[in-house]
From TrEMBL:
Keyword annotations from UniProtKB, A to Z: Membrane, Transferase, Transmembrane, Transmembrane helix
Membrane-spanning residues: 12-40
Residue ranges of domain Bacterial sugar transferase in the record: 3-184
InterPro entries: Bact_transf
Organism lineage string: Bacteria, Pseudomonadati, Pseudomonadota, Gammaproteobacteria, Alteromonadales
Keyword Transmembrane: yes
Protein family according to the UniProt entry: Belongs to the bacterial sugar transferase family.
A molecular-function term among this protein's GO annotations: phosphotransferase activity, for other substituted phosphate groups
UniProt keyword Nucleotide-binding, yes or no: no
Descriptive protein name: Sugar transferase
Organism of this sequence: Pseudoalteromonas phenolica
Amino acid sequence: MLKRLFDLIFSLSLLVVSSPLLLIIGVVNIITSGLPVFFFQDRVGLNGRSFKIIKFRTMVNGAEKSGTGLDSFSGDPRVTKFGQFLRASSLDELPQLINILKGDMSFVGPRPPVTYSPFKYDEYPEYAKKRFDVKPGVTGLAQINGRNELTWEEKWKFDLEYLEKRSFFFDLKIILKTAVKVIKNEGAHDLEKNK
């Protein structure tokens, strides 16, 4: 209850406070790369239920069907110039405040994977499927320990560790460490698979 109350109060507060910034980002996105402003993608959430995650679009349209698909890397030509800035600053994640307000996500929890990668929900190993016992988060233990530079197995290990240690104060600790990671711009891209 405390976690949900925290999510509701702070997601609504941040949406109100950041609304001018959200508007500016939307306008600049339209001017620099056209529509759509937002990127919607089906992700796996609590108990395996899918939902649409909301982000600012940072790549050219149809990027998932070209190049390295879901995997991005530093210098990826599919990422727009403004998109590079949004990713580096993690401002592309701001619209997920709406997901938190709706109850699809929390501020802290395992990151929600897409519905078909690395597996469909029913195909996950039983131990890894436990990560879906809690709401997915904008950030999590894996994000402060390597983010996209981790393998899936390494991410699952941190996700399961989070399930064991989770508490309100542990969440606050992760949020603070996330802020440091964002400032340092660490782990913002996947490793380039073709090297």
